[in-house]
Amino acid sequence: MPDVRTQELARRLAVARGDEPADLVLRGGRVFSVFTNEFLDVDVAISDGHIAALGRYEGIETSEVTGLTLLPGFIDGHLHIESTKLLPNQFARAVLPHGTTTVVIDPHEISNVFGLDGVRELLRRADTVPLDVFMMVSSCVPASRFESSGATVTPEEIERFLRTEPRALGVAEMMDYQGLAHGSPDALAKVEAAYEAGDRHIDGHAPGLTGHDLNAYLAAGAASDHECTTFEEALEKRRLGMWIMLREGSAARNLEALLPLVLRYGPRNCLLCTDDREPNDLRDEGHIDAVLRRAVQLGCPVEDALVMATLNAARYHRLHRYGAIAPGRIADVVAVAELEGFEPVRVWKAGRLVAQDGRPIDIPAIEPMPAWMHDSVHVRPLVAADLAVPAAARIRVIGVESGQIVTRALVDDATVREGVSVADPDRDLAKIAVVERHRNTGRIGLGFVRGFGIRHGAIASTHAHDAHNVVVVGSDDADMAAAVARLGEIGGGQVAVGGGAVLAEIPCPVGGLVSELPFEEVASRFDTLEDAAREIGVTLPAPFMALSFLALSVVPELKMSDHGLVDTVGMRLVSIDAEG
Amino acid sequence: MPDVRTQELARRLAVARGDEPADLVLRGGRVFSVFTNEFLDVDVAISDGHIAALGRYEGIETSEVTGLTLLPGFIDGHLHIESTKLLPNQFARAVLPHGTTTVVIDPHEISNVFGLDGVRELLRRADTVPLDVFMMVSSCVPASRFESSGATVTPEEIERFLRTEPRALGVAEMMDYQGLAHGSPDALAKVEAAYEAGDRHIDGHAPGLTGHDLNAYLAAGAASDHECTTFEEALEKRRLGMWIMLREGSAARNLEALLPLVLRYGPRNCLLCTDDREPNDLRDEGHIDAVLRRAVQLGCPVEDALVMATLNAARYHRLHRYGAIAPGRIADVVAVAELEGFEPVRVWKAGRLVAQDGRPIDIPAIEPMPAWMHDSVHVRPLVAADLAVPAAARIRVIGVESGQIVTRALVDDATVREGVSVADPDRDLAKIAVVERHRNTGRIGLGFVRGFGIRHGAIASTHAHDAHNVVVVGSDDADMAAAVARLGEIGGGQVAVGGGAVLAEIPCPVGGLVSELPFEEVASRFDTLEDAAREIGVTLPAPFMALSFLALSVVPELKMSDHGLVDTVGMRLVSIDAEG
After folding, report:
1. Nearest to A33 among B14, B18, B239 (CB)
2. Gyration radius of chain A's alpha carbons
3. A266: which chain B residues are within 8 Å (Cβ-Cβ)?
4. Which of A166, A282, B369, B522 has a beta carbon 3.0–4.6 Å from A94's, enabling a disulfide?
């Protein structure tokens, strides 16, 4: 008696031969071939969730797609699902209508809070969702020795996870790029773990790395990079074999700078990713479809853009059954009316209609996250005095720029009042604090930041890459303390405070990272939250995303941790006092 | 204490950083980047057989390559090493000077004689040779029910071999394309074996397959094809996702017909292979370098040709550390003086100089093949009468064409003398026989063939795809019988007979397939053998290669087995008498 797989295969072949009707035939469309860049006038015959054949076919069910163009389901090559603040089913509801049918996540936010046990729980919730969620195993938890995470991930755990979790493809971004390039034993052990688990691929993360150190990083096995910010940087990396992920997130928007790489050298070795997207950006702009639209607006041939969003992402991630509308592949199909708009009229995941006219269809509820993944934010009540910074003449200031997660290390005069250095909205000088929240140590790092434009109050978040302590930026110490306290009360999330009162908030009780509300509600609350930030003067686009990256100690140049200011180029702690 | 791999990796990174000198630096050349199609002015730093870095580097040893262009080592995506009649070290001596550093073999000739035990012995001999010999596990042994092989390979054996043999990448050409497309249980079980062993890739072999049956074949998992003979055929297959191997063997020369696929649609999904090459073609024309030269002569951009011969072959076969000169890859480098000539001045395999100016350097001897792999040709002495064919009016004739392994099914008048149908050189009508030789059953299949031009005597071979019985073509029954007898005496090989005497021969005592002589001697003997064939009138180019394919029952249209004539389109035995 043949097993189920063989029975399904035998039926698929019968469908392809025309001996049996397909489960579903998409009839009358133009099908994009990622292998020849052509648009083919063929039907698509689907059987047991796979594409059985292209040609002329009959089906038990037929979907008329005359006038529409059929594209392979879009693939996001690298993202942190936690940044959307959505559970897997709500994330699916958000992205399926935009044509995304496969994502490769690095769940290193959850990893930093709960370790790989938390990741396993998250992945289990994806099992019942009509979206393929593959993952790369978080490699740098904590991201560096300057970050106080709630959990660590060892090389042994990485290897075991790769061997036991079918969704795990390889090792996620090796953010400790200096450590790896310089042969740190821990980094090498993680490379070895990837090898031992079957020579898996390793995502890179190497902002600005160049020359000899870049070569060392690649020689160690880092195979991709999503942190390029200039054409020259991306070209150097691509010449040396890296797969370049053109990133267009909510804060980090690198597509425009990097697209010349595709225009001049073609799409080989390039794919698309979003890395981190806010829920309302998913709703308003979209997901990979938005990146495709932007690429074409910037002059990219539509075929090249599509190949990056489908075949190339699949090939990089060794997902041999994804990324194309072709016999034997998973039947992930996006129907669009107007090609360059990339706006899905209908979306099929594994042969099932999952979205139509921008709305998801019948995405099932998931099992609630376990109790132990709630209640993870442990902070003692703060008072304004906890946030006082001693007076100094010249101070280091984190310079934030719109559309970048890299910062500049600035130095400026301090504004001193009553013996302490204070925020000074007129000079766009805000105070920043990172408060350790996993073990309630009371440890607080303090500093200054420029670029938000905040004039009153504070904004705070337990999304604070990658250790996800509490990060808070404000012009008023009391409001900053109140914002931290509020996040402690609601189990984490994001909040805006002004005049001592909570103006808006999103509770993220799952690890302080993920909401349990529906996508629409999360996006709508996020609108309110961003509006509240504007009310207190914030001018920076995507301010909460920018806020959450101010604690990430593996991106140049100057960042904030609960231990204090981190010079992320020299990888050392530095004082606020620039002359101290 | 870190293990050797980690120590090597740490040193490689130190070399890349410039902290330690490389083992070897190739200085002053232009390096081709397969990722951007550029030629870069950089040194290549090599450490423990890997490329550590590109840039400016110092080495313990330095090789001056100013004025030369450095290319990644060439990869043959599909070949039967036995067709060269060479042992692995002699094959390495033959191809390394031509720039080939990696081959993916399907050893299904040895498999048909000795099963996978014979393959394991062959592969062991490659361990000490500076050439990477990967393999696909022979899937169709015997090739069809019409072929009497010496061994069979079961789905269980395929799966076990894939799990236990590190050189085994996937499943070799599924030549039973009708069986697979029609869901035969045996073919499906082999697909399942590939899946169970880790979702390995499966080579296709589907000459002329089109439409619904082609879709079924692809839906089953066949991922590549090296049997395309027309542009239209290759285009249909590529559109549907197949990797197209542009083949240029000794007999099957498909490059010219297929190259428009690359000229019009670019090199995506295309790679190069030779499938079957005679030893003197390797000496005189070359190997993949010859295919590259031909491609460029036919108008292919040199960069596209190179990408097919390197990166694309590596990507198709999932050899992630091959196919590029880039940090972390195996240091396989070919230096050429004149780019479009592709003639290697120097060749490095894993950082070691293995050929210079067309000559191999220090290729070690190998352990002799075991005794049980000799003495495999078991035939009783034949007499001319054994080869008599009853008289008929109209007879079926196998039509051979130069440069093709497909044949035409012809029908012509018989020439009848003394009550039997005979060869008639004036009408280019020769007699063909296939004599079972594994079990000495005495079974003989008889028929007629056109296209050799043979006027006297006979040529015979125990290279007779894929069962490798004795195949003999001649104009004289006595000479045909003598040729068969001689192959029995020498343990197999290839022979030309005229006037009752052996004119020339190559003994292939290993399974009747492989010589134990040095490459130069095999090539030179093969010259003599081909000369002898010309002397008895043969006009067909590469006549022994063509001869060896006349028994292959999985290529259209009409072939010969020890059971008789096989209609390989209808997959049935047919009589010689076209009206019978």
Report:
1. B239
2. 24
3. 37
4. A282
Average pLDDT over residues B390-395: 96
Neighbours of B53 (CB within 10 A): 32
Alpha helices in A220-300 (DSSP H): 231-239, 255-258, 260-265, 279-284, 288-297
What average pLDDT does this structure show over A334-353?
97
Nearest CA in chain B to A269: B35
Distance from CA of A90 to the nearest CA of B (A): 31
Report chain B residues whose CB lies below 8 A from the CB of A9. Answer: 183, 188, 191-192, 219-220
Residue A456, judged by CB atoms within 10 A of its CB (0-12, 13-18, 19+), counts as middle
**Cβ within 8 Å, pair B212-A324:** no
Strands ordered across the beta sheet of B243-247 = B74-79, B100-105, B132-137, B168-174, B202-204, B222-225, B243-247, B270-273
Q: Which of A7, A9, A35 to mutate to test the interface with B (most CBs of B within 10 A)?
A: A35
The amino acid occupying position A378 is H
Looking at residue B251, its pLDDT comes to: 85
pLDDT at site A404: 85
Give B157-168 as a 3 state SS string. Answer: HHHHHHHHCCCE
For the segment A313-323, the average pLDDT, to the nearest whole number, is: 98
A265 vs B18, B36, B265: nearest CB: B36
> CB-CB: which of B2, B239, B326 is closest to A35?
B239
State if pTM tops 0.90: yes
Give the pLDDT of residue B227: 96
Mind telling me how many Å the CA of B268 is from chain A's nearest CA? 7
Instruction: State the ipTM, two decimals.
Output: 0.94
What value does the mean pLDDT take over residues A213-222?
98
Cβ-Cβ contacts under 8 Å, B213 against chain A? 17
Cross-strand bridge partners of residue B353 = B348
pLDDT computed for residue B2 by the predictor? 63
Is A99 in contact with A289 (CB distance < 8 Å)?
yes
Q: How many CB pairs under 8 A join A and B?
A: 189
Task: Compare all CA atoms of chain B with the CA of A8 and give the residue at the minimum distance.
Answer: B220
Q: A211 vs B318: CB contact, 8 Å cut-off?
A: no
- Give the nearest partner residue to A36 out of B40, B53, B265, using CB atoms: B265
Q: Which two tokens stand for residue A407?
A: 């910062």
At B436-473, the pLDDT tens digits run 999 999 999 999 999 999 999 999 999 999 999 999 99
Average pLDDT, chain A: 96
In chain A, which residues have their Cβ closer than 8 Å to the Cβ of B15?
219
Side chain identity, residue B70: L
**Rg of chain B over all Cα atoms, to the nearest angstrom:** 24
Residue B494 in tokens: 């290839």
Tokens of B340: 């479009």
Q: Is the pLDDT of residue A276 over 80?
A: yes
As a whole number of angstroms, the distance between CA B154 and CA B133 comes to 23
Enumerate residues 6+ apart whose C-beta is below 8 A from B464. Answer: B434, B470, B471, B547, B548, B550, B551
- Sole residue written with tokens 């097919």: B308
For residues A1-18, give the mean pLDDT: 90
Q: What per-residue confidence (pLDDT) applies to B139?
A: 94
pLDDT surpassing 80 at residue B184: yes
Chain A residues near residue B194 by CB distance under 8 angstroms: none
Q: What is the mean pLDDT of residues B79-108?
A: 97
B328/A218 touch (CB, cutoff 8 Å), yes or no: yes
* Burial call A421-451: b when 16+ CB within 10 Å, e when fewer: bbbbbeebbbbbbbbbbbeeeebbbbbbbbb
pLDDT in tens, A453-476: 999 999 999 999 999 999 999 999
C-alpha span between B433 and A332 (Å, rounded): 52
Euclidean distance between CA atoms A471 and A445, whole angstroms: 9
Instruction: Quote the CA–CA distance of B288 and B303 in Å, as a whole number.
Output: 15
